[in-house]
Amino acid sequence: MSTGGADKPGSGGAGGAVKTPSDFLKSIRGRPVVVKLNSGVDYRGILACLDGYMNIAMEQTEEYVNGQLKNKYGDAFIRGNNVLYISTSKRTVTDGA
């Protein structure tokens, strides 16, 4: 009785305010994110896609170690078993903001 159709839009009984982790991940595709790895390294960029194993493809990726920018990559792929969390990010580009 837990999944019967409760994750379909408009079918939520409690005002439709329930948002699953899957809904969140679908909603942030194409947006700036921060991906924190188990090692403590952060990757910031545009989320291109991800799969059920949390394998992540990113664009315009920047690598931060201890809060300092270390590398810039065009595209990056992160294996899901290294991911601690994914968070949405406000744009950190300082050239015109």
From TrEMBL:
<keyword id="KW-0963">Cytoplasm</keyword>
<dbReference type="GO" id="GO:0003723">
    <property type="term" value="F:RNA binding"/>
</dbReference>
<dbReference type="GO" id="GO:0006364">
    <property type="term" value="P:rRNA processing"/>
</dbReference>
<keyword id="KW-0508">mRNA splicing</keyword>
<keyword id="KW-0698">rRNA processing</keyword>
<keyword id="KW-0747">Spliceosome</keyword>
<dbReference type="GO" id="GO:0005737">
    <property type="term" value="C:cytoplasm"/>
</dbReference>
<dbReference type="Pfam" id="PF01423">
    <property type="entry name" value="LSM"/>
</dbReference>
<dbReference type="InterPro" id="IPR047575">
    <property type="entry name" value="Sm"/>
</dbReference>
<feature type="region of interest" description="Disordered">
    <location>
        <begin position="1"/>
        <end position="22"/>
    </location>
</feature>
<dbReference type="GO" id="GO:0008033">
    <property type="term" value="P:tRNA processing"/>
</dbReference>
<keyword id="KW-0507">mRNA processing</keyword>
<dbReference type="InterPro" id="IPR010920">
    <property type="entry name" value="LSM_dom_sf"/>
</dbReference>
<dbReference type="InterPro" id="IPR001163">
    <property type="entry name" value="Sm_dom_euk/arc"/>
</dbReference>
<comment type="function">
    <text>Component of LSM protein complexes, which are involved in RNA processing. Component of the cytoplasmic LSM1-LSM7 complex which is involved in mRNA degradation by promoting decapping and leading to accurate 5'-3' mRNA decay. The cytoplasmic LSM1-LSM7 complex regulates developmental gene expression by the decapping of specific development-related transcripts. Component of the nuclear LSM2-LSM8 complex which is involved splicing nuclear mRNAs.</text>
</comment>
<comment type="similarity">
    <text>Belongs to the snRNP Sm proteins family. SmF/LSm6 subfamily.</text>
</comment>
<protein>
    <recommendedName>
        <fullName>Sm domain-containing protein</fullName>
    </recommendedName>
</protein>
<keyword id="KW-0539">Nucleus</keyword>
<dbReference type="InterPro" id="IPR016487">
    <property type="entry name" value="Lsm6/sSmF"/>
</dbReference>
<feature type="domain" description="Sm">
    <location>
        <begin position="20"/>
        <end position="92"/>
    </location>
</feature>
<keyword id="KW-0694">RNA-binding</keyword>
<dbReference type="GO" id="GO:0005681">
    <property type="term" value="C:spliceosomal complex"/>
</dbReference>
<dbReference type="GO" id="GO:0000398">
    <property type="term" value="P:mRNA splicing, via spliceosome"/>
</dbReference>
<keyword id="KW-0819">tRNA processing</keyword>
<keyword id="KW-0687">Ribonucleoprotein</keyword>
<dbReference type="GO" id="GO:0120115">
    <property type="term" value="C:Lsm2-8 complex"/>
</dbReference>
